[in-house]
Amino acid sequence: MAMIAKQCPQHEITVVDINAERIAAWNSDHLPIFEPGLATVVQAQRGENLFFSTDVDAAIVAADMIFLSVNTPTKTYGLGAGRAADLRYLEKCARKIAEVAQSDKIVVEKSTLPVRTAASVKRILEANAKGRNFQILSNPEFLAEGTAMQDLAAPDRVLIGGDDSEAGQAAIEKLVEVYANWVPRERIITTNLWSSELSKLTANAFLAQRISSINAISALCEETGADVDEVAHAIGTDSRIGPKFLKASIGFGGSCFQKDIFNLVYLCEHFGLPEVAAYWNGVIEMNDYQKRRFARRVLATLFNTVSDKKIAVLGFAFKKDTNDTRESAAIYVCRDLLEEKAQIAIYDPQVSAHQIERELGAQDPATGWELCSDVYAATAGAHAVLILTEWDQFKDLDYTRIYQGMQQPAFLFDGRNLLDLKALRAIGFEASGIGKAGERI
Ligand code: UGA
């Protein structure tokens, strides 16, 4: 919405939320999320044509177009628990619009949803239309965290799905006009509603599949002496494969990939396609394996015990340049090591203790983890250093100083293949990465 406000001064954008604390944060100097470049745009547009408010009803009444951007987490209860999307927030929004709107509205699904959700929203709105016309569009978001502002400013494509009817096509055109303020027309793809919804899930499933594929190969590299980065580079030069999203890691995290694949799997099962469901579920299984495999390797290398050993974890966010920790692979690695009674010292330039507490429990010696505000304090006296997020600043640390402060032998596990292992070994570290055999044969 900040980007639309920036690119479309003729439009007035109001972002509403029932969470007053969150809206207050959006109206303050401390935005509730860290995203490079976002604060500048929000500060420039806020009070001009971008507003943040808790007055949901007034915003609905005033709007011509309403974007639904509520969260749709994986259900934790009842039928489909652990896999299906929880659509209660979305349904509440639809009912709210039906209750409050006094005129025709275009309702745009921005949240990532299972295919055919638009149909439910449509039914709720139409059953309560009382003479008003509601058009439903699907306009999935393809930005990635950490690069959101660039992705929004120059998207590969914008996707808009809508009804085939004349009114549906007119609604699509209205939204096309918004994006056409800065996105070339040929990059704005229009489809029917279902194709748009399914394209979003499919795009994320394909991206996640690439990561699981290269991570699967990383395990084989470790056994055979091949180097996964070399393999990724070699295959990525094939223009049909392409070089992106082939970085082996401790596994993908984030709020989207796993949730969207679960959604896809659930849909396939629902429509009687167990083979298709099993195929996509394999992407998640490989990811779980990769996270577990890393923690096991740390344990095995540290002489099969980490009990009471200090382990320094550098990076807790699910990727660099974000403070988002949702489904971060670091959570799983830390949990596995805490179960083995390790003492974990975490350093992350953006993540707060409060966020980690939600994942690992209270911060105290009994739970076994602490958050350090200084990377050298985190590594002092540690038996091992684990790089779990690829923050750029980790490339420039004083590794000689870190090495000298550690227990010997000093182990370093680079879960992101960020560092120069040869240079670390020259300092004295027992260093290993992902998909790399201990020493070159
Ligand atoms: C992902 C998609 O990339 C976006 O296109 C999509 O809009 C978004 O989900 C969404 O559905 O909202 P995001 O999760 O923000 O974006 O970040 P990614 O850059 O895709 O990274 C996801 C995870 O995969 C991270 O943990 C990252 O470290 C990992 N990853 C990524 C790898 O392990 N290797 C790679 O080569 C790339």
Question: Can you offer a commentary on this structure?
Answer:
The chain is an alpha/beta fold and 441 residues long. Among the domains are: 1-54, no CATH class; 302-432, Rossmann fold (3-Layer(aba) Sandwich). The protein is built from 17 helices and 13 strands. The strands form four sheets. It has a six-stranded parallel β-sheet with strand order 10-9-8-11-12-13, with helices on both faces. Helix 8 (166-179) links the parallel strand 6 (158-162) and strand 7. Helix 9 (193-224) runs parallel beside helix 12, helix 11 packs antiparallel against helix 12 (274-301) and helix 12 crosses helix 13 (329-339). The longest helix is centred in the middle third of the chain and has 32 residues, at 193-224. The model has no long low-confidence stretch (mean pLDDT 95).
Short description:
The protein is α/β, with parallel strands linked by helices and 441 residues long. It has 17 helices and 13 strands.
